[in-house]
Design goal:
424 residues, 55% strand, 14-stranded antiparallel barrel, mainly beta, 4 helices, Porin, single chain
Amino acid sequence: MRMFGRKIASVAVAAALGGMVTGAVAGGFAIGTQSGSGTGNAFAGGAAAADDASVAWYNPALMTLLPGKQVAGALHILKPSFKYEDQGSTGAFAAQPAGNGGDGGDWAYVPNAFFTWAINPKLSFGVALNVPFGLKTEYDTPWRGQLTAIKSEIKTANINPSVAFKVSDAVSIGVGVSAQQIDAKLTNCGNAACTVVAKLEADDLAYGGNFGISIHASPSTRIGAHYRSAIKYTLEGDATFSNAAALNGSVSADLKVPDSFSLSLFHSLNQQWELMADATWTGWSTVQQLTVIRTSASGGGPVGSTLTTLQFQWDDTWRYGIGANYKMSPQTKLRFGLAFDETPTNDTHRSPRLPDQDRTWVALGFQWKPSKTSILDVGYAHEFIQDARVNVPVPGQTTCVAGCLTGTFKNQADILSVQFSMSF
């Protein structure tokens, strides 16, 4: 029965969000774009704003503020850029081709869909279909860092049903569960001449939960808080080696994606202006290393032996955002937002697979209501990302005795979001 339920959940997730391509545009490999209406505010105040059905993800307690039935669908077009500049690589990396890998980022298309239903004045139900985590970097080969990374891809798909209860006129609570599928693929050269290319492919389905509360501190001020649990995966798949089939075999690895907590504020200053702010903590310290274990015997080692260990040594992070909306008319609203997003990475263990750094979001957008039951939101955000330094030893080594890839990544990202919502 457990395997049957797991398979059904996996099929449901894949059917809901199949075929998406992902690119990290937030700290770590989180995807910060989870609603089209939030992009224009840099997602400030997400756990307190109640614009549309996307509250099913950001804080299910807010569903009690939405009347009737509402549905929202969004598409986010992402363009991250990761360009490497070498600064004195040594040893095995100095002997590699002099190419810098081109732009490791690429276009990505991330969908979201949300539904909420006010069953009665006190009870609401909702569902979020989204992509919470994702990553894709791919470098043109041959390049200097190909011993460490060629392609890195993480895809997730999430279904998150939830319910909300209105405790009083001032307080609502909400709770939900998530079924989340993850697929990972990593490639790199297996030797200096790159006559062998190593590829790891693995996946898993796991579960988590979330809880939120909404408090009306006054008729014009709302406070929202939301907690989302960590999810622990046991990824299972295969390691394959081109031109070295004797090394092929099945593998597994444990990965725990982080929990998070958001505290948000929404305030109606007057009939024209709405203000919002938030702070979000993410427990990225759960990601310290990824140890890939052989689960079948091969020429590379016996069952239980370590194939490779990827070091992360990440830290917990904070994200801070402020935003504002200006109502030009009953049909039109302008959005503005600014946010600072910390990276969990560090200069010692940062990898070309994810050359992340602290980023500042600058965002704007607009909302148009073509009818009483429909809303169109368009938002744009640019991420100014600090230069990301790498100093990575040869795989399997902890020091630069055999050489280090030493250089800096020049990064940036752009996001365009379009969302259409309807109530009925």
